[in-house]
Write the structure tokens for this entry.
Amino acid sequence: MNRHDDILFGLPGEILIREGLADVNEGRDTIAGCLVEMVLPRLKTAGISPLPAVRSLLDSEHRLYGHLAEFGNGAYARYNSLLRELTSFRRALEHRMVRGLV
């Protein structure tokens, strides 16, 4: 597949999502993996597979915050920053899908 035909190419958070996809598929519990779990239904709709089933969105959010809290102060700000980046990713992915750019 040509890099420009890749649905993730150039989307906000592309690197983080790619890292998370690798982590989830390898069974690693990471910050990036938690973020991917939070958008897994959209990724599956976009045809990105194979993707495993996840426990629950709430569990992914709690684990994400737990990972961030391990680094000390600033977990809340970092959590919100990552959620904003994830929202940008979701919107850009949906726009790409609606426009038929996949």
Q: What stands out?
A: The chain has one domain: 3-98.
